[in-house]
Amino acid sequence: MSLGSASYLARRAAQKERVRILYRRALKDTLNWAVHRHLFYPDADALREKFEANKDVQDLETIDRMIAAGEVTYNKWRHPDPYVVPWAPGGSKFHRNPTPPSGIEILYDYGREDND
Fold first, then answer.
1. Which terminus of the chain, N or C, has less C-beta within 10 A?
2. Dihedral angle over CA of 44, 56, 68, 20, nearest 10
3. Where is the Complex 1 LYR protein domain (predicted)?
4. CA dihedral of residues 90, 94, 99, 100 (deg, nearest 10)
5. In Å, how far are 5, 21, 68, 111 from 75, measured between CA atoms?
6. CA torsion 62→66→68→72, rounded to 10°?
């Protein structure tokens, strides 16, 4: 394998990774805009069609420009208040019941104490 083809393959692999990451981010963000599944599925199909329409492009410079344009569009239309699972960091239930501070003992045998 020559040095030119190795660099070509490395660049193509990096582009594929960027496209994959962009698609997954956009798909997850689509669910933020359309919270009900019956509204989400048509939007997800339209997003997939946009990506599938350009899957046969071979020119590396064109692909880089398309990825950059897609990232700009994604950042422009990203949801300002994305949905966060309640128990995840940033969710409404995160650390609702934090661990007790050191020095406080929790009795798990409540009601079964020794009555000597």
1. C
2. 50
3. 18-71
4. 90
5. 33, 13, 11, 56
6. 150
Q: How many residues does the chain have?
A: 116
Number of domains in the chain: 1
- How do residues 34-82 score in pLDDT, each as one tens digit? 878 999 999 999 999 999 999 999 999 999 999 999 999 999 999 998 8
Q: What is the pTM of this model?
A: 0.73
Location of structure tokens 């046969």 = 56
Q: Which residue has the tokens 């344009």?
A: 69
Tokens of 69: 């344009």
Q: Which range of residues forms the domain containing residue 14?
A: 1-115
